[in-house]
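Model it.
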Amino acid sequence: MNLKIRLILMNFLQYAVWGAYLTSMGRYLGNLGLGTHIGWFYSMQGVVSIFMPAIMGIIADRWMASQKVLGLCHLIAGIFMIATAYYGYTAGTDTQFGIIFTLYSLSVAFFMPTIALSNSVAYFCLTDAGLDTVKDFPPIRVFGTIGFICSMWFVDIMNFQIDQNQFITSGILSLFLFLYTFTLPDCANVKEGKQKTLAEAFGLKAFALFKQKKMAIFFIFSMMLGVSLQITNGFANPFIFSFGADPQYVSTFGVQHANILISLSQISETCCILLIPFFMKRYGIKNVMLIAMFAWVLRFGLFGLGNPGNGVWMFVLSMLVYGVAFDFFNISGSLFVDKSTDPDIRSSAQGLFMLMTNGVGATVGTLAAQAIINTYTHSEVLDGNILTVGDWPTCWFIFAGYALLVGITFALVFNPKKKAI
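Modeled.
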């Protein structure tokens, strides 16, 4: 089989594993009576991202080929994800938070490193085949997002959004990818010569960048905007489903197929990647990141104003805006780090950027969002389903207000030199 096709299949499965539950898990947890704990499940992804990718990276660098570490991680992640589903199924509404959270945490602890590992495998294979990673990897990576979307649609169409079958789907896909890694080329990353120290592996040397005012401001605001990243992944589905408590909305497409509606966000994300080179060249890093910050304001604000009936166009627009909010921040920020750091710490600096956004920022954001949502909403049983109902618009307006405040402050404080853009 052609190498690119093999890597496309790997990326498709890699993100299909994640898409099976990432946007619908909140609805399932709410149906178990754990709606007040949704934020903890999403924050755990950020917590384990702080240290697990580095640990697995050390193993791949020193003792085991990358594709083998990738497979091992998916094996363990898949087993624990299926165990999570089994416990949720057998316990039902008597599910204990501590038990299901522990099983889930063990699964994501081994899944999160696979994102970087799958990239490493693709880079190694392409380079080994004499191909250009800059040119050939992005089209391959797009199929990861396609896999994510396909998985979301499958879970929606099969009506798995409200039960443990979304976890079973994810677990089975993980196990299938574990088997598939045996067919991948050997990525023997263990090389003679100087190996990374623990400080280098964990990216600790990059913290010296905080001595530079420009970089310190950039990383601090990256963390502050990172607060927004996982909020809609965790709470958009339960929010849209909550309209089912209102007879005029119960049969609408949005309530019945929230995952398909939300998948417009991922479709937008795929398309907006193509706009970044033009916007970066024309407007520069500061303006591109400002566009992203104000896109988050629209993302949250439109949720607060819309409904799945005659206001569904606001939901659709919110989904389309997500591509700008997510891509313009993450990718332009990554490019800024690449242009502003020395080659010897560039990888560590990228790791620090991810730590501040998807680690610290996203963890704090989901827990803070959970506290706000717990304040303004409550659980209500309707036709055997547990819905999270209440003053959702106020929650979304608080999130929008936060994003607006961050954006305005960023505009006033962050002033990079032209040559660093």
